Amino acid sequence: MQHRVGFIIPSSNTTIEREYSKIFIEDISFHFCRLKLKEITIEELETMENNVEEASELLTDAKVDLICYACTSGSLYKGLTHEEEIVRRIERKTRTKVITTAKSVLSALNRLNVKNISVATPYSSKINLKVREFLENNGFNILKLKGLGIIDNLKVGNISLEDVYNLAKQAYKKGAECLFISCTNLRTLEVIDKLESELNIPVISSNSATLWNVLKNLNFRRKIYNCGILLRNFI
Q1: Residue 107 phi/psi, 5° resolution?
Q2: Range of 170's domain?
Q3: Quick check: 33 and 94 in contact, CB under 8 A?
Q4: Do both 112 and 149 map to the same domain?
Q5: Is the pTM of this model over 0.70?
């Protein structure tokens, strides 16, 4: 059976489509709609969210089976109650099942049965504070959070794999049970296996957790290789 998944992403995201296009999943196709966002700020996240019903309605023209609001900071910056309101707004408009990246990350961390985590992000200190609050308010202990201080989202998409790898290594702290790399515009899938091998802990990213939750909601049971233990062993 062919499944279609719709993603709502920021207009300046240049990564998630590229990463997912490299993963062949038989009988599942991905379809994307964009909302205006150039800078990762509270103000632009709020403005982007104002048009979420319109974007979701466009995706229903493709008869998608599932819609994902695939912006990490945009789905966590006001907490879980607000994330749930975004989901309700889209579901009311489309009558379609909806998930978000933020909730996908929580679900993935819970599935891995971890509590003490390290976090790597490209974000500014203001957005990092929102990430910290969201994770801590939902039961996780952040041993270390390392950010790059970037606001321009297009610059995030241009960060090299080597720099993502180095950021992740800098974010790791001994005692962490998992490393989370945040932002759907940050290239991560190609370095997760290497990081897991070197750190000897699970490593998840916004894009790996989102994809995992998409597959879980579609009752997809086959392993996905080369993207970390979450997609390889916890489908």
Answers
A1: -65, -40
A2: 105-205
A3: no
A4: yes
A5: yes
